[in-house]
Amino acid sequence: MPDPSTSAADPLPSWNDGPAKQEILAFIARVTHEGSPDFLPLAERIAVYDNDGTLWPENPMPFQAAFAIDELKRHIHTEPHLASEPMVQAALAGDLGKLLQGEHFDGLMQVLALTHAGMTIDAFRDAVETWLASAKHPRYARPYHQLTYQPMQELLRHLQANGFKNFIVSGGGADFMRVWVERVYGIPPEQVVGSTARTTFELRDSGPVLTKTVDHLFVNDNEGKPVGIHQFIGRRPTVCCGNSDGDHAMLQYTTINNPRPSFGLIVHHTDSEREYAYDAKTKSTGKLVEALKEAPRRGWLIVDMKQDWKVVFQPE
After folding, report:
1. SS3 letters for the chain?
2. 40-44, 64-68, 305-309, range with the lowest pLDDT
3. For the whole prediction, is pTM greater than 0.70?
4. Average pLDDT over every residue of 100-109
5. Contact 52, 170 (CB under 8 A)
6. Which of 34, 114, 119, 207 is 20 to 30 A removed from 84 (C-alpha atoms)?
7. pLDDT of 100 over the 90 cut
8. Structural domains in the chain?
9. What is the pLDDT of residues 223-249, one digit of tens each?
């Protein structure tokens, strides 16, 4: 039998040939072969992915934080009094530590409250689209949504081609991600589980309107991820891809005592030349300590970005 990693139909061409690639391909082949004792019925082929740091970068700050800060700058032109707010000053100074402090990223939530509370869903979508069309990453000088990891895009497509249903399960805002996930990842907006707050409905003369608030905030991170999966997906995943301790509980929920075959994957940021290198110490989000320590015992695959990926980003 030919080696699937070197055949002309290689589904993961941006991955270096090696144990990581072989382990991924072997798992997918094993659970999708009807004669296999590990065969997964189609309904149970559920794959969940963190977004920031797993499918695209989270440095020098999460992309939604960059969007919020740019929105804040725009608001200050029409509402200059906002500049006196302490968290506004921290945001404009790029003080990520202050913005992301607290269990619920309290500083960032204050900025979002100032800039987005009271916006209609349509106005928010338009603001995200405008930002995506104009903003560029400070290091790569490319639009943010073009900076997805090519190896992970290939994994998304290979799993989908083998009957898996892909879900984003991220601490990022669900409304923010749903604007672009379908065209960027091929994942429809209804397959996004993210942080949410209460949305209100009213019928205006122009028609039905949904309006954003920051009330009843649900932060879909850490232990919130398994809760979000249960609430919004309703099935236990059999594949989980993450990159940080924020994904630790999701990896545990997917793989520990799962009655079905399961697979956990951690993207380890080890490439300072092509991307960033961090785990225990990070200038942005994405701290990785506990999940990395537990990975060998649980059999989670640690993907070394520097060693395992031929290329990092999608080609321009």
Report:
1. CCCCCCCCCCCCCCECCCHHHHHHHHHHHHHHCCCCCCCCCHHHCEEEECCECCCECCCCCCHHHHHHHHHHHHHHHHCHHHHHCHHHHHHHCCCHHHHCCCCCCHHHHHHHHHHHCCCEHHHHHHHHHHHHHHCECCCCCCEHHHCCEHHHHHHHHHHHHCCCEEEEEEEEEHHHHHCCHHHHHCCCHHHEEEEECCEEEEEECCEEEEEECCCCCECCCCCHHHHHHHHHCCCCCCEEEECCHHHHHHHHHHHCCCCCCCEEEEEECECCCCCCECCCCCCCCCCCCHHHHHHHHHCCEEEEHHHHECCCECCC
2. 64-68
3. yes
4. 68
5. yes
6. 119
7. no
8. 19-59+143-308 (3.40.50.1000), 63-134 (no CATH)
9. 999 999 999 999 999 999 999 999 999
Count of other CB atoms within 10 angstroms of residue 226: 19
pLDDT band at 271 (very low <50, low <70, confident <90, very high): very high
At residue 115, what is the residue type?
Answer: T
Higher pLDDT: 157 or 77? It is 157
231 token code pair: 């609430």
